[in-house]
Amino acid sequence: MSARGIPRQAVILVGGEGTRLRPVTSRVPKPVAPVVERPFVAYILDNLSRHGVERAIFSTGFLAEAIEAVIGDGSAYGLEVAYAVEDEPLGTAGAIANCDRLLDEDSFYVFNGDVLSDVDLSALAATHLEKGGMGTIFLTPVEDPRRYGLVELREDASVASFLEKPGEWEGTALINAGVYVLEPEVLEMIPRGRLFSIERGVFPKLASAGSLYGYVDHGYWRDIGTPDSYLQAHFDILERQVKTAAADELGDTYLYVSPDAEVAPGARIVPPCYVGSGARIHAGARIGPLAVIGAGAVVAEGATVTEAVVQAGVVIGAHAQVEGSILVQGASVGSGSQLNSAVLGEGCVVGAGNRLAGGICVYPETELPDNSIQFYEQLRGREGS
Ligand code: GTP
Known about the structure:
The protein contains 7 helices and 31 strands. The protein is an alpha/beta fold. Strands 14, 16, 17, 19, 20, 22, 23, 25, 26, 28 and 30 form an 11-stranded parallel sheet that branches. It has a 7-stranded mixed sheet with strand order 5-4-1-6-11-8-12, with helices on both faces. A hairpin with a 2-residue loop joins strand 2 and strand 3. Helix 3 crosses helix 5 (198-208). Bound molecules: guanosine-5'-triphosphate (GTP). Residues 13-21, 30, 59, 61, 86, 89-92, 95, 112-114, 225 line the site of guanosine-5'-triphosphate.
């Protein structure tokens, strides 16, 4: 029998390819993609350690070494991190079972590696203890639940039904937020070494046995799996809607400018805004509101950056306008170019005088000559290439 109690251990699922977030994730795995200059999963580790977790097991596969290189043994995040690496994707349940030799015989949390939330894990664990089931899922209400697992609860908080990615749905519903507490006995329900989904293969069985419960939390929750939600996660952190270390740095002014950033006289910084180490903002440039400027990035004279993420080392030319866009590290934008709702992959070079808009994604290292794109439609054919 397992020892029931507040979990001290967690499994974090980080083996997916993150295809929907390309080109942000073309070179960097989603769990360590920078979010306000921190590897994303650091926000998860912060929350786990706030609630007494001492050991996190990363279930990795795709680009496993890249994750390990960033997170290491976890000491920088105040807990111990171990890794269980898959040779091929095992699905959400298979990936949990693959961690079994690294888990103690106690209850454990599971976190999808793309969930940004300050959910009260201690309250989730307390509900789990009180209800006494094999699993308790953190549920959050969302307005458009079609790409999530929908959950209906009975009055006693037990799960009545579990409907995975329904496709069609009208109105708000409670969804599986990708965070749960499980008892180790659940591992025995998972076949080893093959693709197996917790949402399809385990939760429905536990629910029909009356051993799965829900914990509803109305606090902050977002998954960062698409460019829109990745961008929005930055805005939410800048607006301090979610409890994070970055929120503490931003403080009541909603503004963080690294002490070694260079902001020229005559440049304007409009909060909420974050300017990283060594960034250079030239005279006449305007940054914000809702802008993250990464370490060493350059914003030349007269350029504007609004509601955008500009990662480390990006260079934005004079009088360029960047709005609602994500510029992955090392990208550059020529003078006078306009980007509206665009995503530039790592190392992309957009020449001067171009106009990109409408959700266009440009893949890493693409080079666009000066004055080559005036209308986004010309680039549409490249999307997804
Ligand atoms: P997309 O390709 O854009 O759907 O993203 P994804 O690969 O991350 O898939 P999804 O968002 O459905 O996965 C939710 C979480 O589970 C993410 O943190 C993934 O890293 C993780 N995950 C999904 N499938 C696997 C798997 O087979 N093995 C492991 N270890 N983790 C997985």
